[in-house]
TrEMBL record:
SUPFAM superfamilies: GIY-YIG endonuclease. It comes from OM182 bacterium MED-G28. InterPro entries: GIY-YIG_endonuc, GIY-YIG_endonuc_sf, UPF0213_domain. PANTHER family: UPF0213 PROTEIN YHBQ. Residues 1-75 form the GIY-YIG domain. This is GIY-YIG domain-containing protein. Pfam families: GIY-YIG.
Amino acid sequence: MIRARDQSLYTGITTDPERRLIEHNCSAETGSKGAKALRGKGPLKLVYQAEIGDRSEAQKMEYKVKQLSKAQKEALVSKQQPLLQFLEKTN
């Protein structure tokens, strides 16, 4: 999860979080390679990451995280709990 300057949280998947954060930060300024949702919202900061098995499973987890409320996402970020453990408690 990435925190934007306006304190919003962006959720996405990647095989290389550090590289993707750099791309998003560049995008926030130039509009290339990053998510449209983050343009103009830099500087961006990586605040949570979890390693998930394969791409299919990562997409399922991404969807579940995106369904969480802002308060639940903030709790996940602040506690730095394992994602699967956190999602089990929220269901």
